[in-house]
Structures are given as C-alpha cells and as structure tokens.
Design a protein that fits this description.
By secondary structure, the protein is an alpha+beta fold. The protein folds into two domains: 139 residues, no CATH class; 38 residues. The protein is 36% helix and 24% strand. It has a five-stranded mixed beta barrel with strand order 1-3-4-7-5. A hairpin with a 5-residue loop joins strand 3 and strand 4. Helix 1 packs antiparallel against helix 3. It is elongated. The two termini are 23 Å apart.
C-alpha cells in the first residue's frame, strides 16, 4: 500500500513522463510536417524556370527563374559577416530592373572576400551594363544577423530589409529575392550556396531528447521506488 508520499511521487513521475512523451510526439509531428513541406518545395524547384512575365509574389519561393533585366549597379549592397566555404566576407546584393516591367527584384549575386586589414575596402566587382540574363532560384529576404541599434545604410550593411531598402532607393521591389546560381556569370563571385533546409534533423534531435528524458524518469522511479526498497528489505 502506497503512503501519501508514495502517491505524490507516483503522480509526479507519471505526469512528468506523460509530458515529456507528449513533447517528443509533438516534435515527431513537426518533423512529419517538415518532410511534407520539403517534398513540396523539392517538387516546386523541379518545375520550369519562371520568366519575367510569370514572376508574381512570395508564394513562388524556391521556384527556378530565368530573368532578363538591367543591373541597378549604384544600389549594390554588401552584406557583411557572411561566410562561405569557411571564410567570412560579403554577400553581394544588386537590384535587377526587370525588362518589360516597372518593378525590380533583389538578386543575391554571390560571395566576395573581405579585405584582411581594411574591413571597409570592397573587392572589385564586374557588373555588366545593358540587359543581362540571371539564372537562379527565388528566396525570401536575405538571412538576418543579430544587429545592435538601428539598421545601417550605405554600401556595407549587416542586414537588408527589402521594403525599407526599396523606399530608400526609390525602387519598386518585389517581395522576394533571387539567389543567383548561374556559374557561367563572369563576375568573380562565389556561388556555393547551401541547399535550402528546413531544420528537419533538429526536430528528430529534440524528439530523442524528450523521449530519453521520459525513459529516464520512469527508470529512476522504478529504481528508487520499487527496486531499491526491496533490495534493502532483503539485506540481513
């Protein structure tokens, strides 16, 4: 017969095990949702490349594109502290004025190294004049880094908010960006972009931790409340 303290310990153990088990199942459910979403994104990325006329909005993220337009070179932004291939440098972002349209799209053109001694010294960048073709995939805004205070202005920035930048530059920007993937572009930039990833393995890792904690709670209860008292009784 359990004492009052025994019932309290049992109820606490069962509630804790139930909670951690539910959290593990919730993480598995989140992982299943990410699997479905990743499959949808993979299927979307295999569709034919969008042209200027087909470019619409944010619901086309991860679609391939083949766009024609003119670089707005004087509005190029260098996003600082962006790594690629183990080195820190800049992501180069230049607006592209779309041919046959009055709007513009931000293009994450590639990566350039940062000068070791002079942080504000920009490397040379070849930006062709006239109409160009840009091959890539659609993405959301450039990744954001932690930044103290208000966002900076000028050529070198920590982050870039497309809406604010469009108002600042007087450009009609689409609510998405293009990650340029065309390796034949002769501008000296690296384009070893990581594949889009939704953090699927993170959810599996969290699920394992919750299930392990659930198992630990049950094992500790069995040991301290059942096994250990019996062993003590058996001792002479």
């Amino acid at each position: 017969m359990l004492s009052r303290r025994g019932w309290v310990v049992l109820i606490a153990a069962l509630l804790s095990a139930s909670l951690t088990g539910r959290l593990g199942l919730w993480q598995l459910d989140r992982a299943a949702q990410k699997v479905s979403l990743q499959a949808a994104l993979d299927a979307q990325s295999q569709q034919p490349a969008l042209s200027n006329a087909e470019l619409a909005g944010a619901d086309q993220v991860h679609r391939r594109v083949a766009l024609r337009g003119t670089w707005v070179a004087d509005r190029t932004v260098w996003l600082d502290n962006r790594p690629m291939d183990g080195r820190v440098g800049f992501f180069v972002v230049t607006p592209l004025l779309l041919s046959g349209r009055d709007d513009t799209v931000l293009v994450q053109r590639g990566w350039a190294p940062r000068h070791v001694a002079e942080r504000n010294r920009l490397p040379p960048l070849a930006t062709p004049a006239g109409e160009v073709e840009v091959i890539g995939r659609l993405a959301a805004s450039p990744s954001r880094l932690y930044e103290l205070g208000e966002g900076s202005t000028g050529a070198i920035r920590q982050n870039l908010d497309p809406a604010a930048f469009g108002a600042e530059a007087g450009l009609k920007l689409l609510p998405l960006t293009v990650v340029q993937t065309d390796a034949s572009a002769d501008d000296g930039l690296l384009r070893h972009w990581p594949a889009p990833e939704l953090g699927l393995h993170k959810h599996y890792g969290y699920a394992f931790q919750w299930f392990a904690l659930c198992a630990l709670i049950l094992v500790l209860y069995v040991w301290f409340q059942l096994v250990r008292p019996r062993l003590r009784k058996q001792q002479p």
